Amino acid sequence: MNDTESTTAMFPSTPAGTPGGGGGKAGAPSLITPDYVLQLNKIADDYLCTPDANIYEIDFTRFKIRDLESGAVLFEIAKPSVSDIAQTTSTEGGAKKEPAAAATEATADSATVSGAATTTTPTATEEVEETFEPNAGRYVRYQFTPQFLKLKTVGATVEFTVGSKSVKNFRMIERHFFKDRLLKTFDFEFGYCIPFSKNTCEHIYEFPTIPPDLVNEMIQHPFETRSDSFYFVDGCLVMHNKADYAYNGGL
């Protein structure tokens, strides 16, 4: 595929199955379409597809956020390779390390996994918490400093691989809410991906201007800002990820 521009919030590892529907909130149609998710007026109550809907074996392996104005890398996370995981499953004494502890590694020039503010740039303090049951890899929690809400344009680069099936019309719809208020909808095209390919693309996020009173409310109510990321192939839902956000890092 050609390099375009896109994002994801976590690194799901999902087996093959049947795409399209099931497992969603009460009243959801059996086949989830882009038009359906675009008309939702709040965060989905549940996941709108099961993990095994990812029959294309799409696997996100790296994610980076950068401020386009300054060029600063705000956050970067990479999924370790199989060889990396193998190396971390044992120590010098031969003791095994729990897989969950080695499941994700994060690096950032201006972000720390502890959530403490950094001295280099306060823009994005970041903390990630992943759940492993029952929806392992489909939920992530971020913590940023208040300065993040002042950013105008952010580039989100994602690296991902696909399995034995070609991926046509790969599309992501990401909807951000504060409580039940829609903040912004992002709608990005990944295009076509050949089988067994590794793809890298960047999507440009132009953030809306948020009124000062709403900014203060978002800072004062951590993790009540949430997002749904819906991934479609040829109009069929194959992945659904969730995230929530806090903007009180360093306070």
Automatic annotation (TrEMBL):
Chain segments carrying region Disordered: 1-27, 85-128
Entry's Gene Ontology BP terms: cilium assembly; lipoprotein transport; nervous system development
Gene Ontology annotations for the cellular component aspect, listed alphabetically: cilium
Entry's Gene Ontology molecular function annotations: lipid binding
Biased composition (Low complexity): 100-125
Pfam family name, one: GMP_PDE_delta
Keywords, ordered alphabetically: Lipid-binding, Protein transport, Receptor, Transport
GMP phosphodiesterase delta subunit domain residues: 53-247
Composition bias type Polar residues, residue spans: 1-11
Family stated for the protein in its record: Belongs to the PDE6D/unc-119 family.
Protein name, as recorded: Putative photoreceptor synaptic vesicle protein
Organism of derivation: Anopheles triannulatus
